[in-house]
Amino acid sequence: MTRYADLADDLTDAIRRGALRPGERLPSVRQACASRGVSASTVFQAYDLLEARGLIESRPRSGFFVRAPQSGVAAEPMATMPVGDTTEVAIADLVMQVLGSTRDRDVVPLGSAFPSPRLFPLADLARSGARSMRALDPDRLVEDLSAGNERLRHQIARRQTLAGIAVDPDEIVITHGAMEALDLCLRLLTRPGDIVAVESPTFYAALQALERHGLRAVEVATDPRDGVDPDALAAVLARHRVAACWLMPNFQNPLGSLMPVERKRAVVALLARHGVPLIEDDVYGELHFGATRPPPAKAFDEAGGVLHCTSFSKCLAPGYRVGWVSAGQHAPALRRLKTMTSLATAVPSQLAIAEYLVQGGFDRHLRQLRRRLEVQQQAMRAGIERHFPVGTRVSRPQGGYFLWLELPEGADALALHRQALACSISIAPGPLFSADHRLRRGLRLNFGHPPEDTRIAGALETLGQLAGRTGISAAR
After folding, report:
1. Is 238:87 a contact under the CB 8 Å cutoff?
2. Are 399 and 250 in contact (CB under 8 A)?
3. Where's the HTH gntR-type domain (predicted)?
4. Which candidate, 74, 91, 72, 314, places its Cα nearest to that of 201?
5. Euclidean distance between the first and final Cα of the chain, in Å?
6. With the CA atoms of 251, 255, 259 and 260 taken in that order, what torsion angle do they form, in degrees rounded to the nearest 10?
7. Which of 3, 37, 115, 279 could form a disulfide with 185 if both were Cys (CB 3.0 to 4.6 A apart)?
8. Same domain, 230 and 327
């Protein structure tokens, strides 16, 4: 599998760099075999994968050619332009109203925040859990209470070093998923009435956390490709007394944006000058489509002001609820707060994941997962291209499993949500992702469910038809 996937990845990179241009013929199967030293079967598998990604097309008796970009919805969404005022957050009722439907198995989960559980090695994790429980030393149940299992923290520290974060295992606090990690950081750094800077749009769970703790939000202009605008953030910091900043630099939910390295460095330096801590949500960092994992903002933290939060829920073990914070100088205070809040994280889940990491299957699983998600993204973008109204804009994320759509003028994503739900299709409308319920034309779709689920293709077609009922003809 590695050989054909490596060939496909090399050709994907060449197409994206422009070394292979639209309409240009790919090397013949015989030429590719000779140049790469692989079999014809390997080349055909690689070309099949490129076709699934929507990058090439086969022409009878002529060979394989780089596919020209399709017209219609090729444009990316525009950067947001929030007004910069603080907002009292009131989002919980809307979130519960809109997303309650995602638990129904009969509803196509395009609005879900989770990928398909079938993408994960749950059977292998169960075996790892059984092995670790058989070897469990009962005394460790008490020793590992607040900070978390020592073996797991060592494995996490090892992986974070590879991601560019030099972290001591003692700085890591294991939590009930990333949401507890993020919530603990928020409670540690803020008091009711404080202002927290967030992206625009931002993940609705962040807004729910702010509402729960009586905090005010100030939204910062965010580009669908490059993330938060440092100049816009500087203007917010000059205008407001911000207590903390909550950002998702890698494959942001809902936009899918990836902050370039220099932009991450600039944001971290800017916040350090103002003495504003950064709560970094990095749950999608492992789901990159490129060759290397993008470094988190924590990698550029020289002042100790970044609290890096992530979990295994999105990349390995959904439902196990194992997350963590690399808290640096804040680790002792965070550990105390964790003890007062929930005392400890479930031990069997920690042991199962630690054992799985030690056995060495994680990176192989991640390679397969990333390739699968990239293919699924291409399939969903192609479906949107075929079925959605002319003038629809769609993001082009380099990782994660969300697409952000900007519908044409006159569209109402909340009305579309109600119509789609009547057809047993869930979506995540834009107002969920803004403290003041803006972004009425915005829409987040989840491509984390395999396209072989025939309901996905049919749901996209139905959704496109519903979106086109505002009087705008659908692209064909």
Report:
1. no
2. yes
3. 1-69
4. 91
5. 35
6. 90
7. 279
8. yes
Identify whether residues 462 and 376 lie together within a single domain. Answer: yes
* 285 closest CA partner among 259, 266, 317: 259
Residues 6+ apart with CB under 8 A from 30: 40
Q: Are residues 167 and 227 in the same domain?
A: yes
Per-residue DSSP letter, 169: G
| Segments of the chain with pLDDT less than 70 | 1-2, 52, 69-74, 101-102, 139-144, 470-476
- Which of 90, 60, 135, 113 lies closest to 254, judged by CA? 113
The helix (run of H) or strand (run of E) holding residue 56 is strand 56-59
30 and 142 together in one domain: no
Name every residue whose Cβ is closer than 8 Å to that of residue 218 and which is 6 or more positions away in sequence: 84, 85, 86, 87, 195, 196, 197, 198, 236, 240, 242
Counting Cα atoms < 13 Å in the Cβ hemisphere of 378 gives 17
> Is 75 contained in some domain?
no
Over the chain, what is the mean pLDDT? Answer: 89
Closest CA to 64 of 6, 136, 102, 7: 7
pLDDT at 17: 73
Same domain, yes or no: 355 and 459: no
What is the CATH classification number for the domain harbouring 59? 1.10.10.10
Query: What's residue 237's pLDDT?
Result: 97
Looking at residue 101, its pLDDT comes to 67
pLDDT of residue 293: 93
Per-residue model confidence (pLDDT) at position 2: 64
Round to whole Å and give the CA distance between 302 and 284.
23
Domain total in the chain: 3
83 assigned to some structural domain: no
Residues 211 and 346 in one domain: yes
Give the dihedral sign, CA 17/18/20/23.
Answer: positive
Whole-model pTM: value is 0.84
| Phi, psi torsion values for 192, nearest 5 degrees | -50, 135
330 contact partners, CB below 8 Å, separation of at least 6:
185, 188, 307
Q: Which domain holds residue 421?
A: 88-118+368-470
Indicate whether 346 and 450 sit together in one domain: no
What span, in angstroms and rounded, lies between the C-alpha atoms of 47 and 29? 9
Single out the residue in 299, 333, 362 at which a domain terminates.
362
* Owner of token pair 């022409």: 59
